[in-house]
Design a protein that fits this description.
Blueprint (H helix, E strand, L loop, with lengths): L1 E3 L2 E3 L5 E6 L2 E6 L8 E4 H12 L11 H23 L3 H23 L20 H13 L3 H18 L11 H11 L4 H15 L7 H16 L3 H18 L1
Antiparallel strand pairs: 1-2, 3-4, 4-5
Length: about 250
């Protein structure tokens, strides 16, 4: 304490902190005959906590995002270290295993396509724009020329169904699916039943299954389209044969 200009002021005194058991002794620069000031352990800890909680001491602390990122990378590092220890060959063996797993997943994705939820019911084969079989064939060939095999397969299947409708082998029915068209057409063209169902499956896989069509699959369905044009329906043949037999029997 000092008196300056008639004002009593407090002058901070140099001090040191000495810890003894559960008591903290605050030793000020006092006369040698005066004992040091002692503070119990708990109040001293609380005073230190309050002091260190001041904003002054935390101005350069990392933000919450940086702390979260540091925690994540620490976890990844520990996980990798643990896995590398357990894997044969250490870190190199772990890298080989990870690459092998990624290669298998890539092969499955390429073979099976992107997983998708199966539709509750197949969508309609045609859209709202009525087009002729010739127009669908032209669109299919244009897509094939550009290597767009998905669209080429879709348009060729539509051309097949529209052609069968134009030949009166199928009734014109909005909302018909590819599977339904194949089943109905197989009754009139039983010799092509297997190929019709295969074409319908290709159409569904490309349209709803997320799979990619290939050039060979397009050529198969295009060949089916050409063969169907030359295939006579069994019902028509049976009717003609029956009428011929009737006329022949009447003549005799």
């Amino acid at each position: 304490m000092s008196l300056a200009g008639g004002v009593l002021t407090s002058v901070p005194l140099p001090h040191t902190v000495v810890r003894a058991g559960d008591t903290v002794m605050l030793s000020l620069s006092r006369s040698g005959d005066e004992p040091p000031i002692t503070i119990p352990r708990d109040p001293a800890r609380e005073a230190a906590r309050r002091e260190l909680s001041k904003r002054l001491y935390h101005e350069n602390d990392p933000g919450w995002f940086q702390r979260a990122l540091d925690t994540f990378w620490t976890w990844v590092s520990e996980l990798f270290g643990t896995a590398a220890t357990a894997a044969p060959g250490g870190a190199l063996g772990l890298v080989v295993i990870v690459l092998a797993v990624l290669a298998v997943l890539g092969a499955l994705w390429w073979r099976l396509g992107t997983p998708r939820r199966e539709p509750a019911s197949s969508a309609a084969l045609f859209d709202d724009r009525p087009r002729s079989a010739a127009e669908h064939r032209a669109a299919s060939e244009a897509h094939a020329a550009q290597g767009h095999w998905n669209q080429a397969v879709q348009e060729r299947m539509r051309a097949i169904v529209r052609s069968l409708e134009e030949r009166a082998l199928l009734d014109i029915r909005p909302g018909r699916t590819a599977d339904e068209a194949a089943a109905e057409a197989a009754r009139a063209l039983p010799s092509q039943a297997a190929r019709l169902h295969a074409a319908a499956r290709d159409f569904d896989d490309v349209t709803y299954g997320g799979r990619r069509a290939s050039e060979p699959s397009y050529h198969r369905i295009a060949e089916l389209d050409r063969d169907l044009e030359r295939t006579k329906p069994q019902l028509a043949s049976s009717t003609t044969s029956a009428a011929h037999n009737t006329r022949q029997g009447a003549a005799e």
